[in-house]
Amino acid sequence: MKEPEKPWRVLESRVVYEAPPWIRVSCDRVETGAGRIIDDFHRVEAMDFALVFARDEAGKVLLLRQWRQGPQRFAFSFPGGHVETGEDPAKTALRELVEETGYAADSVIPLGRFSMHSNFGLGWGYFFLAQGARRRQARGEQDLEAADIHPLNAEELETALSHGEIITVHDALCARLGLAAQK
Description:
- By secondary structure, the chain is an alpha+beta fold.
- It has two domains: 9-46; 49-113 and 124-181, Nucleoside Triphosphate Pyrophosphohydrolase (Alpha-Beta Complex).
- The protein has helices at residues 89-101, 154-162, 169-181; strands at 9-19, 23-31, 37-46, 49-56, 61-68, 73-77, 80-82, 103-104, 109-117, 121-135, 148-152.
- Strands 4, 7, 8, 9 and 10 form a five-stranded mixed β-sheet that branches. It has a three-stranded antiparallel β-sheet with strand order 1-2-3, with no helix packed on it.
């Protein structure tokens, strides 16, 4: 059996753009595991985030519909947000569920942790399942824009996915992980 490559090493790094705590772009000089030198390998560090696939007491999945500035359109997304420094991602998921929807859950079940891009980085996404979420309070102040809450059943969620109403990879992944966990 062939031995795997060694881990890559960063030989030099210079920051080319930084806007803490949101993003940091660096240009690195790296040595690959095979010994090749790459003089301009870019890395994008972004804040980690948590998303929650939350089902209410009726079994419907709680989604938000709001403007997404990156792709420049309205779309469905799952409740979630950035993991604060030192915060447990499960606590982020529970906090964001209440802040963004007004619904609360007693606990969440981890569905996975994934890097958002295998070369650039772009932070880690933590995905959770919450069962039996119940209305606890009015929704909190939204960071940027208001979002409408849309409880969808599994069939409606599948339709939203297939008709391009869920447009970001992390939201599509959350949908797939959550649906698979229900089977």
